[in-house]
Amino acid sequence: MFSYQGPSFLGGAKVGASFKNIQNIVNGPKGDGYVSDMIVMREHINDFPNVICSNMRSQDMFKGSLSRLFEIILNVLNKHPEDIILIFETCSSSLLKEDLKTAIHALKNDEKARIFFYENDYFKESEDISASNTLLHLVENFPDINVRKKNNSANIIGPCLLNFNYSHDLKAIKSILDDLKININLTIPYGCSIYDLKHIGKASLNICSDIPLSFKTAEHLKEKFKQPYLFPPYGFKGTSNFISGLENCFEKDTANYIQEKENILLKKYSDFMKENIFENKRIFLFGDMTTVAGLCMFFKNDFNAENIIAGSYNIRFQEMFFKLIDNSNINCFFSDDSLEVEEKINEFKPDLIMGTLNEERYSNINRIPFIRISSPMRQVETVMYPFQSFMGYKGLDFLLSKLKEISF
């Protein structure tokens, strides 16, 4: 059995770890303290990330873990007095049924510190929902609600540690904004100081690079600051629509820019595009809903592909997924059960699979062409690619080059 998502606390902790000036404490047994290890291995960083595990010992299971947790909190406050603290329970520690919320609230008042405890159903809430709720909670608590003047810029919401190709997606979106001379107000959460969120309302527009993570926040900001939002650009038509959205918001004339960029790619891949080899091929897409929905419309709009099956493990975002694919007549399914996904592949008998590490393993066994498009992936990547996003014109160039390499 292959797991597509991690536990609830991982979703919250990776969002907290992506911010500057946040110290994250995971209250759980030693075996649950792997978040910082994952970040070090996956992100290839030399420093320790801002995630600490309050390792519960066997005696804590009888006496309770509060005294040990408070000791760690006070130590963090002494070392990082200007930072805020986010505390997460794991499934194991939640079994103790300790009233952490009340105890932390009392400590918060005594120490006059900014401490937040993320409370949820740790057994039922998935990684993507926890990440989304954590980001929304932070954005709700830190913006300056008195912002009056927009600075003609955009916020990019979604880049986050441990997410698939988030830094490459950020480069792809930044490339378009730079070309059109549109400034970036904030990138959230990755690399953003928690205290910079007070400026979030100054932007004229929000761009959701990771929809499960950013959608709730974008909806909140739309209501709070009247900021519209755009979904990420995929393919020729998708990127053109994205740029048109920028044009409407920033009053830019983008027609020549779109034509120039498309002509460059059409000239580079003219022979490949004319072959239209995917029109009668069976294409199986599976992974995070942002990428799957984007690539689904890319094949449908730009290659006239009709025989597509699209699946996602973001099972709580089905309504949003159908909105992204314009309710097209495409065979869709939602599952976080790897055995069910493999059964779908067996039934569909695809010519091309685009998916996660699990589908890559299946494709290797059955010798089916494969392109990796989504988390989860290997814990340690031995090859560091210079660029591998599927967004925008840079991503479209990369995607077409990968598709061109496929031989059926």
Kindly summarize this structure in a few lines.
Helices cover 47% and strands 15% of the residues. It is α/β, with parallel strands linked by helices and 408 residues long.
What does this structure look like?
With 408 residues, this protein is α/β, with parallel strands linked by helices. It has helices spanning 8-18, 35-43, 60-63, 66-79, 91-94, 100-111, 127-141, 166-179, 211-225, 235-250, 255-268, 270-275, 289-303, 318-324, 338-348, 357-366, 392-404, and strands at residues 22-29, 51-56, 84-89, 115-118, 153-157, 183-188, 205-208, 229-230, 283-287, 308-312, 331-334, 352-355, 370-372. Among the domains are: 8-141, Rossmann fold; 269-377, 3-Layer(aba) Sandwich (Rossmann fold). Helix content is 47%, strand content 15%. A five-stranded parallel beta sheet has the order 11-10-9-12-13, with helices on both faces. The protein has a four-stranded parallel beta sheet with strand order 2-1-3-4, sandwiched between helices. Helix 1 (8-18) crosses helix 7 (127-141), helix 7 packs parallel to helix 9 and helix 10 packs across helix 13.
SSE blueprint and pairings:
Layout: H1 8-18, E1 22-29, H2 35-43, E2 51-56, H3 60-63, H4 66-79, E3 84-89, H5 91-94, H6 100-111, E4 115-118, H7 127-141, E5 153-157, H8 166-179, E6 183-188, E7 205-208, H9 211-225, E8 229-230, H10 235-250, H11 255-268, H12 270-275, E9 283-287, H13 289-303, E10 308-312, H14 318-324, E11 331-334, H15 338-348, E12 352-355, H16 357-366, E13 370-372, H17 392-404
Parallel strand pairs: 1-2, 1-3, 3-4, 5-6, 5-7, 7-8, 9-10, 9-12, 10-11, 12-13
Helix pairs in contact: 1-7, 7-9, 8-17, 10-13, 10-17
